[in-house]
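Consider this pair:
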Amino acid sequence: MTLTASAPPASPKQAAPPRPGAVRRAWQKFSPYAYIAPFFTLFAAFGLFPLIYTAFVSLYRVELQTPGDMQWRGLDNYTALLSDDYFWLSLRNTFTIGVLSTVPQLVMALGLAHLLNYKLRGRTFLRTAMLLPYATSVAAATLVFAQLFGHDFGLVNYVLGLVGIGPVDWQTGTVASQVAVSTIVIWRWTGYNALIYLAGMQSIPSELYEAAEVDGASRWRQFFHVTLPGLRPTIVFTVVVSTIGATQLFGEPLLFEGSISGGISHQYQTLGLYMYEQGWGFFHLGRAAAVAWVMFLLIVVLVGLNALIARRRSRKEAVR
């Protein structure tokens, strides 16, 4: 009788856990990149490539009739813009309409958000109604406002006539037409910004208001010393977004009178309209691409200035 010796079974503590294979380790390492790859693919195809290609086209003479016939011009398209009076006029109009629409818009939005932050009846309905102008088509809103600002049968001139003011030519006057276009922008975006401010107000701790009320601060003092400091990041965000939107303003001035020149004397032609006129009115695609890049650089400068001002203000308050 023979006895065969066998090794004792390994205890659970001595058994090593199976190591993941090479494929599994590689997947764990690169799977996050696979998840975000669709976004970056779409961004590269529809965002980055058009931006780079526009910069490339801006260095050539390209006509809409013959887009394949490209002639090298270097920076001539940009120097031609600097010598064009209509470019500077559109740049000034963009700045003027941007100020006329952005400042009242954000001030009114801040006031509306402050009112909606209190316990009012029908708050849900009012908050929903705030988004109706934003949900309205820009074409429909602009066409309605164009009728309201009509010279002969417009409702605005009718109301002005009731208080003894003569009819205003809202479409040919420089200041009047810019005010009319700014009114459309204010109507469409005030409610949207009001809801953003309302969300920012609701994130402010209620203990700050309770402490201010104990100290005897009125509602106005609470607004200026508690609400506004707590809303500073939100205000910076809305200012930046409104600045970008004002620089790219296109639909409202285009549909207000239906002219790509922005009125008879280009009195409310923005940079967006000027770019469209150069590309699809005069068929100069190279110059239109140069205008697009000027707008892009202008937005970068304005956003950088807003960020710099906000950072300096934050540093001053931190020192205090």
